[in-house]
Amino acid sequence: MANLREKVSAEEENINQTLNDLQSALARPERTIIERAALATFLHNIYSGIENILKQILKAKGVSIPSSPSWHKDLLILTVSEKIISQDLANDIFPYLTFRHLFVHVYGFMLDDEEIIKLATKIPEIYSRFAAEVESALQNFEKPTTLP
User: Fold this and answer.
1) Would you say 56 and 77 are in contact if contact means Cβ atoms under 8 Å apart?
2) First vs last C-alpha separation in the chain
3) Based on C-alpha coordinates, what's the Rg of the chain?
């Protein structure tokens, strides 16, 4: 379990650093294509970190990681059914999954500034909820099971 905690902690540190960088980028007075690309990259990094945490927890529980073409979406669904995150949180994370797909498949100049700002503004609160739900899931996972 310590190994899982270490892996989750390392991802959380990276996500928190990225959240700080995101806030710095949001505070810039001008938003050129370069700033927009940076914001998009930070959002992609945060979402990837979230997925990495979920995959590590599933692996530790002995649950297979989805491998279908829609594995990113399947991962969110699976983590809800495994009670790692709530359905409400998964619903709030889903737009970042959609954005991840867009980020990977379009040119940076095609990204919508308003959509990036909307996502960037909401992600600190969503990630805070995610971290709390993951911590709760880890605590439940660590509890020894008692036999009747």
Assistant:
1) no
2) 24
3) 16
Signed CA dihedral, 113, 118, 119, 122: sign only: positive
Is the distance from CB of 57 to CB of 137 less than 8 angstroms? yes
How far does CA 26 lie from the centroid of its chain? 19
Rounded to whole angstroms, how far apart are CA atoms 1 and 5? 6
pLDDT digits (tens, 9 = 90+) for 70-98: 999 999 999 999 999 999 999 999 999 99
CB 22 within 8 A of CB 39: yes
37's CB contacts (< 8 A; 6+ apart) are 108, 111
Does residue 131 contact residue 12 with C-beta atoms inside 8 Å? yes
Tokens matching residue 131: 């971290």
Span 100-132, pLDDT tens digits: 999 999 998 899 999 999 999 999 999 999 999
For residue 14, CA distances in Å to 17, 18, 19, 122 come to 5, 6, 9, 18
- All domains in the chain, ordered by first residue: 2-141 (1.20.120.580)
